[in-house]
Amino acid sequence: MVMKSLDFTLKHPFYGSTGTRVFRISCSVSVSSDHTSLGLGERPWKTSDARLVLEDGSIWRAKSFGALGTQVGEVVFNTSLTGYQEILTDPSYAGQFVLMTNPHIGNTGVNSDDEESNKCFLAGLVIRSLSISTSNWRCMEPLSDYLSKRNIMGIHDVDTRAITRRLRQDGSLIGVLSTEESKTDDELLEMSRTWDIVGVDLISGVSCNSPYEWVDITGTAWEFSKDGSHAENFHVVAYDFGIKHNILRRLASYGCKITVVPSTWPASETLKMRPDGVLFSNGPGDPSAVPYAVETVKEIIGKVPVFGICMGHQLLGQALGGKTYKMKFGHHGGNHPVRNLRNGCVEISAQNHNYAVDPASLPNGVDVTHINLNDGSCAGLAFPAMKIMSLQYHPEASPGPHDSDPAFREFIQLMKQNK
């Protein structure tokens, strides 16, 4: 313990002709070996202890929360203002770091009702400001504790706006998150430049292992559809390429009995069940990396009505003879405008995909039904002759928006017409 004295001068007319007065303040401080020049002890706040190293060579210092260690993934930005827990548990984010453009995250904590799957599949979470407190009547634990238990890394106090601008300009980038001081910047940069997400089958790591019946019903507090009660039930087989729970909840709300099957489930076994319809779900990664799924789709289309969502939409595009391509930075967020070309209505949609169907590659008879108004990309398809409909975005959107929920009603009508 040592004594330190500080002198400072205050100028003010009150102090007479000189207009000045000198004050001296003495205080005792602890001086550590690390901060002897400053007279500081251990800092009471968290300091930067993590790095995000991008493949373009940029290094971003940050503070860690959640799990510790080193992780590699593709960095994408999400423009949603709410729903970070649904994003964390969306299997479509497998292999990716999600950067939230909304600066304030964690203020509502997490709860057991908002899970979109049974675990977190994303590689990590990147945010500007981590809320120091939670305020929500459903909160069960803070975001940091939630991620720690699930071994998911997170960083905060990083310039997310600057990173977002970089991703918009250069496209999605591979990055490495690390809290390990033993790893040099060059080592982390090498990791980012030798890892790739293109051509990797990510579906097999998020799909269920065996078929099961979806038995959960939608609680009345969460049922917003006026057409949610139906006397006529339809049996739907849902292929799990990374399916979100709310897709199953919405189908159940429209009166469907649902059998969920793994991504590798044979088409012949599906047809033996004599379903009224088949749903091909959302999922992560490159549709070209899962040719087995494309073959399954080919064997089913034309035999029963089908509905493809996100990855399912892309697999349908390939199964029909079309091509898919990787977008510059993809669509990730809950505020994407889409035009329904059949009625001219504009829907605000939730989207999460890095690939899209090239409409020019599709055969005659396949109609583009929706387009994304931000970039004009294909957002929906229909092939009436083969009882096919698909959307590139999420009509089940949880927590919202719900503009596109009527797509489930269209699927019901497609199955009803085929009976």
Largest sheet, spatial ordering of strands: 12-14-13-15-16-21-20-19-17-18
- Total strand segments: 21
Share of helical residues: 10-25%
Structural class: alpha/beta
The average pLDDT value, as a whole number, equals 90
What overall form do the CA principal axes indicate? globular
Oligomeric state of the chains in view: single chain
Given as residue ranges, the uncertain stretches (5+ residues, pLDDT < 50) are: 23-39
The major beta sheet can be summarized as: 10 strands, mixed
Write down the secondary-structure element order.
EEEEEHEEEEHEHEHEEHEHEHEHEEEEEH
What radius of gyration results from the CA coordinates? 26 Å
- End-to-end distance: 86 Å
Descriptive report:
The structure is a single chain. By secondary structure, the chain is α/β, with parallel strands linked by helices. 19% of the residues lie in helices and 32% in strands. It is built from nine helices and 21 strands. The protein has helices spanning 84-88, 143-149, 160-170, 185-194, 245-253, 267-272, 291-300, 311-319, 406-418, and strands at residues 2-11, 20-29, 50-54, 59-66, 70-78, 96-100, 104-105, 124-126, 129-130, 153-156, 173-178, 212-214, 234-240, 256-262, 277-280, 306-309, 323-340, 346-358, 367-372, 378-383, 388-391. Helix 1 (84-88) links the parallel strand 5 and strand 6 (96-100). The chain is globular.
